[in-house]
Design goal:
The protein contains 19 helices and four strands. By secondary structure, it is mainly alpha-helical. The termini are close together.
Length: 491
């Protein structure tokens, strides 16, 4: 439907933003990987140039839980009061904030660029470019390794993790649900957005990659396989993570909820802390961050490949050859790399969070998914779409799929979207720094840059059409014209 052209444009904007900021996970992972290749992990001890006087390697907080604030707890060769311990900082946190991020005090203080992070950034983008520049055939061969190797590392980490003291407690914490959390709107918001992001719903990347399939490829079966593998892997990885978190809680004498962080804190604070407590810690740190790098590259390949495919199909030039693709990929990588320079400054984490919370997750994906379902089920017609799928794969999907497109998914999207808006709060970093109003305004500009593509495109096409609304609707809806098409036909 021509009216739905805005959906394609919106997905291109979202995946562009995602490509721009997501690679910072790989940059940080590469930085940690390089620093893991030592005899002693640099974030395991104090005494480095980036450490402050408040750095403390041991926290015996369990001795303070039943004592007064004037009690004392051992921290090596000397004793400190429990009140003093509260102001101490772990070397893991100081390595993350003072060495990796070199964090400034405010979004308005970008500070200096970190040349080491710039080197990691450029290296990562060069690797991404040479993995995708020849197209999906070369990328597909690389994905055989990047998709399978993490399972090997996860199994090794799990075998080691379950042998650690306290691992059972972590696994029990992971499997035992807290039903009271279901009454919290934020839980549903986080769960919904995580599923949408994990399955790349609304990003357009799967649509772009699917355009390379044969016309009669069984996409219906592939969708089920993707869902099962994705969710099963996440469930399995939970055992790996929480066995280690249980070990950390046992070693530190605190409840596991105190060490179970989310987001970058889990990958770059909690797990680095965990490996410092393990024997052969540099080995386990190297394995973990190499796995993180490989997993991230896998996701980055898909996003960049999807964006490049959309650009090439949006502006087709038959007979242009592979050089046009290579140049397009180079321009895309260079532009994204230039944007990423704002994230390797001392205020880079604040910029990263703006992109992460506004540009390619949360309400933008919910908005996108809602309108995709509306267009498929109510504009084009769910029954017609079922017939088209049957023409491709040889049989009709189960009837409940039609109800998912027409009713269930739109209602879920609207519900989570409303929860998100009603419970909206200004963005914060580390639960302490609150973004200024203009910072949130920049975030909303990022979000609206994709969300407004849909209504603006509809309005633009309506104004350019001639005839009555009934005539325009009949032309736009049109007969089914299912045949193998490039992405440009969707956009």
């Amino acid at each position: 439907s021509p009216r739905a052209a805005g959906l394609g444009l919106a997905s291109m904007v979202i995946v562009f933003f995602c490509n721009s900021y997501y690679i910072m996970i790989l940059v940080w992972g590469l930085f940690y990987l390089v620093h893991s290749l030592t005899d002693t992990l640099p974030w395991a001890t104090c005494g480095h140039a980036w450490n402050t006087e408040q750095c403390a390697e041991l926290f015996h907080l369990e001795l303070c839980r039943n004592g007064s604030s004037n009690a004392s707890a051992g921290t090596g060769p000397f004793n400190l009061s429990c009140a003093d311990l509260a102001s101490k900082r772990s070397p893991v946190i100081e390595f993350w904030e003072n060495k990796v991020l070199r964090l400034s005090g405010d979004l308005s203080e970008p500070g200096e660029m970190n040349w080491q992070m710039i080197l990691c950034l450029v290296t990562t983008w060069v690797v991404v470019y040479f993995c995708i520049w020849k197209g999906v055939k070369s990328t597909g061969k690389i994905v055989y390794f990047t998709a399978l190797f993490p399972y090997v590392v996860l199994i090794l980490l799990l075998v080691h993790g379950v042998t650690l003291p306290g691992a059972l407690g972590g696994i029990v914490y992971y499997l035992k649900p807290d039903w009271s959390k279901l009454a919290e709107a934020q839980v549903w918001i986080d769960a919904g957005t995580q599923i949408f992001f994990s399955y790349a719903i609304g990003l357009g990347a799967l649509t772009a990659l699917g355009s390379y399939n044969r016309f009669h490829n069984n996409c219906y079966r592939d969708a089920y396989i993707l869902a099962v593998i994705n969710s099963s892997t996440s469930f399995f990885a939970g055992f790996v993570v929480f066995s280690v978190l249980g070990f950390m809680a046992s070693e530190q004498g605190v409840d596991i909820s105190k060490v179970a962080e989310s987001g970058p804190g889990l990958a770059f604070i909690a797990y680095p802390k965990a490996v410092t407590l393990m024997p052969l810690s540099p080995l386990w740190a190297t394995l973990f961050f190499f796995m993180l790098l490989v997993l991230g590259l896998d996701s980055q390949f898909v996003g960049v490949e999807g964006f490049i495919t959309g650009i090439l199909d949006l502006f087709p030039q038959p007979g242009a050859g592979s050089l046009r693709r290579e140049l397009t990929a180079a321009v895309c990588c260079v532009v994204c790399c230039l944007i990423d320079l704002s994230m390797v400054t001392q205020g880079g984490m604040y910029v990263f969070q703006l992109f992460d919370n506004y540009s390619a997750s949360g309400i933008t994906l919910l908005w996108q998914a809602f309108w995709e379902c509306v267009v498929i089920a109510w504009v084009y017609g769910a029954d017609r779409f079922m017939d088209d799928v049957a023409r491709m794969i040889g049989y009709r999907p189960l009837p409940f799929m039609k109800w998912c497109w027409a009713v269930v998914t739109p209602l879920v999207c609207v519900g989570i979207f409303v929860f998100h808006v009603v419970n909206y709060k200004p963005l914060t970093y580390n639960k302490t720094y609150v973004y200024p109003w203009w910072g949130d305004a920049i975030g909303w500009v990022l979000a609206l840059s994709s969300m407004l593509c849909i209504p603006c495109t509809v309005l633009y096409k309506l104004l350019r059409c001639k005839g009555s609304l009934r005539e325009v609707r009949a032309v736009w809806r049109g007969p089914s014209r299912l045949r193998p098409q490039p992405i440009s036909a969707i956009l």
